[in-house]
Amino acid sequence: MGIQGIEALYEECRTRVQDNRTTPTGPGLPAVVLVGPHGSGKTSTLKWLGYLASRRPHVYFDFGSAARRPHEVAGRLAYGLSHRLPRQAPLLFPRLTLGLFVVAPELFLNPTDPERARKQLRQALRGPQEPQPAAERVVAVAGLLQDLNLLRIPGISLLASLIRQPPRMPLRVTRHTGFAWYAGPLAAMDALVELNQLSKSEDPVDRAEVDRRLCQAFLADLRGEYARRQRDRNCVALLDNIDAPGGREFLDLLMELRDAAGEPDPLLAVAAASNVGRVPGMFANGPAGVQLRFPEQAGYTDWSRSVPDPPPNRSWRWYCVQLRGLTAGETAQLGTNITARLPEAPLLAHRLTDGHPWSVRQLLTASARIVGRERPETLLRAVLSSTTPAAADADEGPSLEAEAREYLLRDLTDDQRRALVECCAAREFDAACDAGLLERFQLHTRDSLARVVATRLWLTDPVSQDAETRGGRGSGYLERVHPNPLRGSSVLHPWLRLLLLRELAASPDRWNAVHGKLRTWHIEHGHPLEVLYHSLALHRVDDAIEHLAQRLVELSDTNVWLYELYTITAAPLREPVLPEQSATLRAEELAAELAPRAFAAHTPLTLLVLSLWLAADPRNRLPAANPELNRTINAMFQDLAMRSVPTRIGLMHEAAKYV
């Protein structure tokens, strides 16, 4: 779901097969890179694209499974691409096959006697006297398939036959085409002997030359196969986790060879990465530093138009597409099996996670266990504290929120994670860094955390604070109304921030110290709304009420006052939800407990502030069809409108958004 634009880009690139009867034109094919944080659906998307390509040559390789040198990756891709498919002539790789044979670890040629080395190579090319036992062949091919992760692609159903009879190539094809290609300044046999000797060297320059020569052979084989026989689709390499060791090395070399060749090749590389810092795409302003497109924006034309003339480097060959979160409608589709019996679950899952695909699936699975039980709304409010789906049948297990934190932050060191838990207290991530929250952590953490969070794509644009974020109607209508608005810089993904805030709240002293430091920093730098934001997080409710009461009298523009109201009440609450208690009742109790003076002097305003504060968490807005807090919010807005001098019709309009 949500990848229709990626599908369109994929099919557009697959069908751009170069007509070999004409001079090659155009920039060729991009290296499409699907990027997104952990759990955004990158691997699932690659699986789906593999299914779409299941009737044409395609292969999947996961760099996260093993670190491979570029020529080893090329060999595995060639193996996958060479499988015979119905009504498709198999791709042959004579140049690469010959080269891989020559650099095999078990083949040693005499390094001091060229004539002896050529004789040894000729003898080796004739093949072993005894054929390889069938059992050994099965084990070797099975291991190769495991390395390629072919079973993870729908459409590969011929595993048994592939193991029984791995793809072979006529010896005459290997020798004729392969020898002709390796011949150059040196005779073919001498060039192959030299390649063998380079492969035994530990010198990085020699190793790089072996990788380069064999990857050249891989691309030359592909061009030769498409020149020999017209095909209606480019072949596809689906490369997962290219930010793991070996991924960039292979693709960097591939891009370099494309530049050197000066002609397109028929290989569409679709890769996936969680760390955009490992993708050398075209530079763009913003935390990630790389030009990103969303699926709905992606297209071959969009990529080709962005190619600079002349290109300063090879970054233009990379085309990064960021997977987006699921929409509310898509989340509802995923939850169709429980919607009829627990209609609150899909919408709550979407609001809590902002559509993060892995997290949506986890919440829907946990919600399914609630169907049919008593007090379903109470159980839904406590869904993050429930055990994970994997531990559902056990007496004890990690909570859903703890499991999600571990999954989403698995790339961070312990020190980075502790620092991020404190940084989540700031509304904008830059403010956490500027306020010195990282000073007491290790030097590596201070230097790397901002970059890590940005390149893992955990920073997003801030959400407009208005009625829509509190269960009412309307969105964005308060933008650009305040003379001194917030900076609007990037914020942590709301789902990750919620999980981190829960960990920070587990230590009240730590919560108070971090929010206190941020409040002091904002006082020193003249940010009054941020000061009140952190005052509210510290339970200094009277400060917020006094400011809003005074501003309601001073301001002539109701929208400016509403902007401040929603901005301040977006502050995090140490205990956002008490599942067993009505949110409306809790708003009254908090007013009496935290702001007795303001509650007595400004009752409607105090109840409004506390209700909006609680409504910032979607778990306090159940049932979604008629959120209980909406009644209180509506009534308090109307009460304020009647008490205001002069009467504020704008407050009446705002009240109507909560009907």
Describe this structure in words.
- The chain has 659 residues and is mostly helical.
- It is 52% helix and 5% strand.
- It contains 31 helices and eight strands.
- It has helices at 4-14, 42-52, 70-81, 94-102, 114-125, 134-148, 159-164, 171-182, 188-199, 204-228, 247-261, 300-305, 328-334, 336-339, 344-353, 357-368, 376-381, 400-408, 414-423, 429-434, 443-455, 494-505, 508-524, 528-537, 541-554, 558-568, 583-594, 596-601, 603-615, 628-643, 649-656, and strands at 31-35, 58-62, 235-240, 267-273, 292-293, 318-322, 459-460, 491-492.
- A six-stranded parallel beta sheet has the order 2-3-4-1-6-5, sandwiched between helices.
- Helix 12 (300-305) links the parallel strand 5 (292-293) and strand 6.
- The longest helix is centred in the first third of the chain and has 25 residues, at 204-228.
- The protein is elongated.
Summarize model confidence as the mean pLDDT: 90
Q: What is the structural class?
A: mainly alpha
Strand order in the largest sheet:
2-3-4-1-6-5
Number of helices: 31
- Radius of gyration computed on alpha carbons: 31 Å
